[in-house]
Amino acid sequence: NILNFDCDKLPTVSVVLPKLTDANSLGAENPIELDLFFNNHDIGTHIYAHRTNSPNRAKIYNKYYSSFEFDAIWDKNKSAIDIYHWPERQSISFLFSDLIDIVDKNKKFWMDLKNLNENNYLEIIRYIKGFTSKKGEKFKIENLIIESKNPQILTLLAKENFFTSYYLPSVSLKENCEDLKHITNTIVKNIQKYPTRYISFPYEQQSYVDQCLLPIIGDIEQLSWGGLPFAIPPGASTRYRAYIVDHSIHPIGKDI
Questions:
Q1: Measured between alpha carbons, how far is 246 from 227 in angstroms, rounded to an integer?
Q2: In b/e form, how buried is each residue of 7-40, taking b as 16+ CB within 10 angstroms?
Q3: Is 89 buried (19+), middle (13-18) or exposed (0-12) by CB count in 10 A?
Q4: Which among 84, 78, 32, 28 is positioned nearest to 57, based on CA atoms?
Q5: 153-168: pLDDT as tens digits
Q6: Model pTM?
């Protein structure tokens, strides 16, 4: 019974994605149990639906969520942000502008931008600012978080008033912080040299952040993910500026 779910432990989602397919082929979950849950519970605007990577998912999630996470690349041939989980997935030519058209106005977005680099960031800035002026009633830059593993370029976007998040390298705290000193030093140097609004990491990485990173860098706003709409761990709603959930009833997620 999802309404009696024990939230003391977050059922994180482990996903093995099949290769060389696309978001349309993988489909979208829309179980009646979640419809019942959302009819009886309010969910915060800082809770984001994971992988809003197809028109069908956008239409379903728009009924329940105020905020959407999606994967994307800058496609120089299309001169547009194309939404798909590169390089594992294939493009369905679902553009960021298409997503804006589908969802209601005043929604929020978290873009996991896979190929942000020094060669394309100026085009990305012009693209987003360009269609912001065209879609001003439905989209505002302050409602967009741009996440990347490239902090050097993220800080350039931050100077253009974008909200940015440094996607931390994968770290597993199995022993102690001393064993992870090398990667921690790299992360600290990046944060100090290339400041962003947020840092982001999966929920499983929280113990590493708490024990090894925050004592060095101090307070910084954080984003995270890893669970289901009805199983958000205690404290997550106040700790995290934004938190992603999978629109599913399965503790072990489907291939999405």
A1: 6
A2: eeebbbbeeeeeeeebbbebebebeeebeebbee
A3: buried
A4: 28
A5: 999 999 999 999 999 9
A6: 0.90
